[in-house]
From TrEMBL:
Lineage: Bacteria, Bacillati, Actinomycetota, Actinomycetes, Streptosporangiales
Keywords (A to Z) from UniProt: NADP
Family annotation (Pfam families): NmrA
Entry keyword annotation includes Translocase: no
SUPFAM superfamilies from the UniProt entry: NAD(P)-binding Rossmann-fold domains
Entry protein name: NmrA/HSCARG family protein
Length: 289
């Protein structure tokens, strides 16, 4: 087999970060997705995860694969994605699945969580050496145009209660952690909660932005219904509703602690130095008006 690494979802923000890191590390990268819109330097096997033959062709000649599923919360559709991936993955040396979100310890009845729980279980039991990575929320969400516009007005809005401690993770760190997991045979069969360098409340996060931007920034919890309304024109009504359902659950007492993290444990386990919060802000939000 060649040393080509397959990145399912390379056209998205998360998969794109993985592809960029693998390219930086000198690997050949094949992207798979509906559109060939990922980082330059990768080869493309364009297709849809519902197409078993297209998925099989994407895995041809691949040693290791990173999987990030599309933002789809219909359990039947997600199960079809996973079935096609599992059917094509025989013979891999390593499969790393990014759930795209943390998965609560107990069942929630929320499709956006439970479809990922089922997908992770299927990946770990498919007979291929697999690792599951479970991130919290991404810092890069705060570099989106709507967030930068709010920051320009002195507000940092997000649909999480202000007292929730969150280990915000940068996309670049996701790429580095995934690349590390792809090279670690000893981690096969494990699920790892990833997180960023620092764990902060909403006001602490706003204070970090204020320190870089040099002006007052106030954290404002956003109602999940308002967040859903904002997302719908961009992601579509069904996906926006699925995302909002997770934030509604996170605001309940059961949701407390889900996005916390242990940076030292993650760094030691995967051998990756995580990006300090202030460093990320300087790189991505320092120019906010």
């Amino acid at each position: 087999m060649s040393d080509t690494y397959l990145v399912i979802g390379a056209g998205g923000a998360q998969g794109g970060a993985v592809a960029r890191r693998l390219l930086r590390d000198g690997h050949r990268v094949r992207g798979f997705g509906r559109t060939a819109a990922g980082p330059s330097g990768i080869e493309w096997a364009q297709g849809d995860l519902t197409d078993r033959e297209a998925v099989r062709a994407a895995f041809d000649g691949v040693r290791r694969a990173s999987v990030t599923l599309p933002m789809e919360f219909d359990p039947a559709v997600v199960a079809r994605f996973v079935d096609n991936i599992v059917a094509a993955s025989g013979g891999l040396e390593r499969l790393v699945f990014n759930t795209g979100n943390r998965v609560p310890a107990s069942a929630t009845g929320i499709a956006a969580f439970e479809s990922k729980r089922d997908a992770a279980a299927a990946m770990l039991s498919c007979g291929v050496p697999a690792v599951v990575l479970r991130p919290p929320v991404y810092l890069d969400n705060l570099a989106a145009p709507w967030a930068r516009e709010a920051l320009a007005g002195g507000v940092l809005p997000y649909p999480l209660p202000e007292d929730r401690r969150v280990a915000w993770l940068p996309h670049d760190d996701l790429g580095a952690l995934t690349a590390a997991a792809l090279d670690r045979a000893d981690l096969a069969g494990t699920a790892i909660d990833m997180g960023g360098k620092e764990e902060v409340t909403g006001p602490e996060l706003a204070s970090a932005f204020a320190g870089v931007l040099g002006r007052e920034i106030r954290y404002v919890p956003v109602d999940p219904a308002a967040f859903e309304e904002r997302l719908a024109p961009v992601l579509g009504a069904e996906v926006a509703a699925g995302v909002a359902s997770t934030y509604r659950w996170l605001a309940t007492p059961e949701g407390a602690g889900l996005y916390e993290g242990d940076a030292g444990k993650v760094e030691a386990l995967l051998g990756v130095g995580l990006t300090p919060l202030r460093t990320w802000i300087e790189r991505h939000a320092g120019g906010a008006a």
